[in-house]
Amino acid sequence: MTQSPDHAPGDGPAAGRPASGIAGGSAAAQPGAIAAAQAGEPAATPAGGPADAEGSGRALPGQEGVPVPRRVRVHHLRQAKERGEPLTMLTAYDALTARIFDEAGIDMLLVGDSLGDNMLAHPTTIPVTVDEMIPAVRAVSRVARRAMVVADLPFGSYEASPQQCLATAVRMLKEGGAHAVKFEGGAHLAEHVRLLTRSGIPVFGHLGFTPQSENLLGGKRVQGRGQEAASHLVADAHALADAGAVAVVLEMVPAPVAERVTEVLRVPTIGIGAGAGCDGQVLVWTDMAGMTSWSPRFAQRFGEIGEALYGATRTYARAVRERTFPAPEHTYEK
Ligand code: KIV
User: Fold this and answer.
1) Contacts 24+ apart (CB under 8 A), 313-322
2) With 90 as the cut, is the pLDDT of residue 13 above it?
3) Across 178-324, where does the E strand assignment appear?
4) pLDDT one-digit tens code per residue, 185-238
5) Which atom of ligand 1 is nearest the CA belonging to 284?
6) Which terminus has fewer CB within 10 Å in the chain: N or C?
């Protein structure tokens, strides 16, 4: 992205993106079922933004005339499932990438506790704290104009009781600006889901391989293999949905089991390593974009951004060392 030194990062439209600043800014340009479902609905505005009046459709200062996209909401997820149109979700941990994913039309941005291993250099998600999550959630919600922002509840912040879970979820919405929360676990957390739902907080369940329990599960292993484990997983999914969960993430589950869950649930399933039969897919963005040398078998690398960034960095360092940067055009003579 080329920027004039007088402009703050993110001020203008990025290279390769529409000058409107919002890809899919009109309902007609938005992807699939959600766009259809949103046709004729009032527009949404950025969380915490000056035009936060729901449905006003008012543009941000300086962006008058730029179409304001309609926020993806829980009823759109249900409608997408009914219409058989796949939902898209990516993780996001900061404003820079969240803005790109939002403009590219991703339906849901998950501020995952994978923040821990992907951004904070923790070995797993287990050490991540609520206080580490909140600034990331806030950054993503500030820039996501269309996507639903889902905040993960980190390990130790919800399991003890429905009340503990509610208190953490409230922080994610009030301080972080999230629209929904996600936490890991099955039927034993149905009461947690029920209380949050009664309190007005949409909940995403997370079944299959649940990274916060990797010590108990014996590492990163496919879950739901075999008749008994599969039936257990289906029962857990039912329990979450019956308690009010608006969607269920299925991680590292055999495809036939994920298909069975998808068939029996009224709410969408979002798969990661769970095959093509889910109602939607989620990936950790760094896996999707090829930011690391290794990525899991279930994640396709849709770009090689890590390599591109490495190349740009090497070129920059060489230019500085060779004194070809800064050039006259980057220099103030007075
Ligand atoms: O934290 C995360 O990134 C997640 C996804 C793996 C679904 O929970």
Assistant:
1) none
2) no
3) 180-184, 203-208, 247-251, 269-272, 280-283
4) 999 999 999 999 999 999 999 999 999 999 999 999 999 999 999 999 999 999
5) 3
6) C
- The neighbouring-strand residues paired with 281 are 88, 271
How many angstroms does the Cα of residue 300 sit away from the middle of ligand 1? 16
Distance 284 CA to ligand 1 centre (A): 7
Pocket of ligand 1 (CB under 6 A): 91, 110, 112-114, 152, 206, 249, 251, 272, 282, 284
Nearest CA to ligand 1 atom 4: 112
CATH topology of domain 77-288: TIM Barrel (3.20.20)
Q: Read off the pTM.
A: 0.85
8 A C-beta contact, residue 139 and residue 98: yes
**Beta-bridge partners for 207:** 250
**Alpha carbon of 93 to ligand 1 centroid (Å):** 11
Q: To test ligand 1's pocket by mutation, which of 87, 101, 106, 113 has the most ligand atoms within 8 angstroms of CB?
A: 113
Mean pLDDT of 5-33: 41
Kindly list the catalytic residues: 251
Name which of 108, 106, 90 is nearest 148 in CA terms: 108
Nearest residue to 247 via CA among 78, 126, 67, 10? 78
Judge whether 24 and 146 are in contact, CB under 8 Å. yes
| 103-154 confidence digits (pLDDT tens) | 999 999 999 999 999 999 999 999 999 999 999 999 999 999 999 999 999 9
Dump pLDDT digits (tens) for 272-317.
999 999 999 999 999 999 999 999 999 999 999 999 999 999 999 9
Nearest atom in ligand 1 to 89's CA? 7
Measured distance CA(73)–CA(273) in Å, rounded: 25
Taking Cα atoms as reference points, which of 156, 162, 159, 221 lies closest to residue 185?
159
